[in-house]
Amino acid sequence: MKVHVLQHVPFEGIGSMASWLAERDAAISSTRFFENPVLPECSGLDLIIAMGGPMSVNDEATLPWLRPEKEFIRAAVAHGVPVIGICLGAQLIASALGARVYRNAAKEIGWFPIRATAGGADTFCFPDQCTVFHWHGETFDLPAGAVRLAQSAACQNQAFQLKRHVIGLQFHLETTPESARAILDNCGDELVPGPYVQTEAELRQVATGAYAGINRLMGEVLTYVTK
Q1: Phi, psi of 148 (to 5 degrees)
Q2: Catalytic (active site) residue 108
Q3: Which of 12, 87, 136, 165 is catalytic?
């Protein structure tokens, strides 16, 4: 399995996905946009993972690599390459396919429940309700042809699927205790009090079992997309 990771900041890596990929002897390459924004050909890849980041997909004027990244994602989707987008990555898929990305009514940072929506017989099925890790201030409209998979009280479009091979997740299932500490250390200034923003103390006290639960679900998403 040949996997390419689109990484936007050094402190948001693939988290628990690393062990899932290692179990399958995946060959992992990456574009680290903060170092060298060079993209490969999408042909020959078995999976593309677009990770998160604190920037906006609308920042093309200050981050010119966003434009070729979207073109890369658009080409991968068109050629049937499986693509998973996490947070910013999901917003990039939406934007690449012509959907609007914009500020959400409220920031959502912390552990909050999502509810599954009726995607259909040939879509990934989330649990009816589960608590997952969020860190986002923007949201997106669904791309044309996409099906909503999950929503929350704070955000209508939490997950979507396009055909069989593309899934976008507004939330983070790959987060581990280590990666949670990394984002807190680098983005803690975003913890401005709000109805869907937990405190740093609350976030640092989350039990290890909570991470294990979302990591299992991340593995299920990976298995589904790469079947």
Answers
A1: -70, 135
A2: no
A3: 87
